[in-house]
Amino acid sequence: MARFIRAVQRTLRLPPLQRSSKTLIHGLQLPSLQSHNATSKFIFQTRSYQNSFEILKSPFESNVLRILRNEIEYLTEDGPPNQPPRIFNSFTVEDHPGQQWVTLRSKFREKEDIKIDVTMFDGCIFIPKLDDDFNENDITGQELRPHISLLVDISKGEDCDMLEFVCSAWPDSLEIQKVFIYRHGRLLPRPWLGPGFKSLDYKLQNALCEFLEERGVNDELSVFLHEYMMNKDRTELIQWLRNVKSFVEK
């Protein structure tokens, strides 16, 4: 082909072929390599611009993301949460990530199964500090005592009735609020759950408290649960912040 073109040039006295943006091959005009590279570069730059435009956030979203990142960094670096313990005394501890409760399980004398469902902090009270400058209208002069609720189930077999205790766990003590029998297979629409615990005879109150203490449900457990829930509260907060950040980033 090249020899044929040179022969035609000599015959017709045409100038030699010049390099241009296009080359003639078999009668087809194809873009040269230089033209092709320029086109590819333009397409790449256009796509990069489009991608940058797609990830661009509004000032409000950018501000939310900045605050979320700062909060996460602060919580994870300044006193990060610990790995939650799985055992406490005779109890195994089952955490439920993303939920507001944990479960403790134990056995007593090989015939009793003990299950305790524990909420996260669900209330608090203020009590006066023991000093001479106490003012009941001044919250800063009072001590905050957070509250945790417990439901203690004690059973003696899968098909047996359960003895249930509704308890309050304070930072340093545990109190019984209600005691009742859960009838297996006989769920009543509005069962009578027995009298208030504090209305019982004082000796019976003490006996029931000792009944629970023998099974490890005592003040020591209450202290452990408050420490556990403080750690879980921080863990859940960090995860919540990360979930919100992930949603805003999409």
Automatic annotation (TrEMBL):
It comes from the Eukaryota. One of its GO terms (cellular component) is mitochondrial matrix. Pfam families: MAM33 (PF02330). This is Mitochondrial glycoprotein.
